[in-house]
Amino acid sequence: MFLGILAVAIGGGVLAAFSDAFPYSNPDVMAKAGIFLMVLAGWGVSLCLHEFGHAFVAYRGGDREVYFKGYLTLDPRKYTDPVFSLIFPLLILAVGGIPLPGGAVFINHHSLRNKRTESMVSLAGPFFNLLLGILLMIVVSLLQPTFWLASGLSYLALLQIFAFVLNILPIPGLDGWGAIEPWLSPEAQRFGAKARPWAPLILFVAIFAIPQVGHAFQEVSYNLYELVGGDGVFAAFGDLAFRFWE
């Protein structure tokens, strides 16, 4: 299934890159369709890589159960909840342009070696997003692809940076909290356990419903995106092409 999602992303990129090569078709329409497919499927690929990052570091840190559960295969069908871990984030991205995380793998924290390993397991997923975003920026900078392909890749890179910023927040239920949780007092850990089911939901509603909150996240993400070498103009055109119905 992972290879199928990757194939769709590559196919969308080819369509965006060579949109003017298709006879009897509108190049702009073909390019936007390609960008939509590439970004949507590319986000699916990054979700798989994000969860693989958690599982891989957990495996190296002592949790052998992740292997037997299939978390090291990149197959999203092995996730604890494929609907909320893959399908739901893809729908939210398509409708609202917000790259939501999708907690997909169960880590046996009791089998991890120490607190430092627990923190590294939590941070591995967001840093996979950051690494993928930087790699996409490097591709755009070095290979200088066609305008539409560069726009789609840049927007996908921006989504990775947004996901990194969002996940790194120290809020129960997000990876940022998981990184600091082992070092907190038992009282704080109990509070986090109680808040974990609803704290991310409140945050996501705030991003959608409160313009100031959504704007703050976008501004921080854009600043980090440009700081590490992203092209804001390409990303803006990629955003417009992805949400072509607007």
Give a nutshell description of this structure.
Helix content is 71%, strand content 0%. The protein has eleven helices and no strands. It is globular.
Structural topology:
Layout: H1 2-17, H2 27-60, H3 65-68, H4 82-96, H5 115-143, H6 147-167, H7 175-180, H8 186-195, H9 199-209, H10 211-227, H11 232-242
Helix pairs in contact: 1-2, 1-6, 2-4, 2-5, 2-6, 5-6, 6-10, 6-11, 9-10
Structure commentary:
The structure is a single chain. The chain is mainly alpha-helical and 246 residues long. It starts with a helix and ends with a helix. The protein is built from eleven helices and no strands. It has one domain (2-242). The protein has helices spanning 2-17, 27-60, 65-68, 82-96, 115-143, 147-167, 175-180, 186-195, 199-209, 211-227, 232-242. The radius of gyration is 18 Å and the shape is globular. The mean pLDDT is 89. α1 (2-17) crosses α6, α2 runs parallel beside α6 (147-167) and α9 (199-209) crosses α10 (211-227). 71% of the residues lie in helices and 0% in strands. The relative contact order is 0.13.
Compute the number of helices: 11
The overall pLDDT, averaged over residues, is 89
How much helix is in the residues? over 70%
What's the β-strand tally? 0
- For the termini, the CA-CA separation is 30 Å
Low-confidence stretches: none
Biggest β-sheet strands, sense, barrel: none
Structural class comes to mainly alpha
Number of domains: 1
Radius of gyration based on Cα positions: 18 Å
What gross morphology would you assign? globular
What is the beta-strand fraction? under 5%
Order of helices and strands: HHHHHHHHHHH
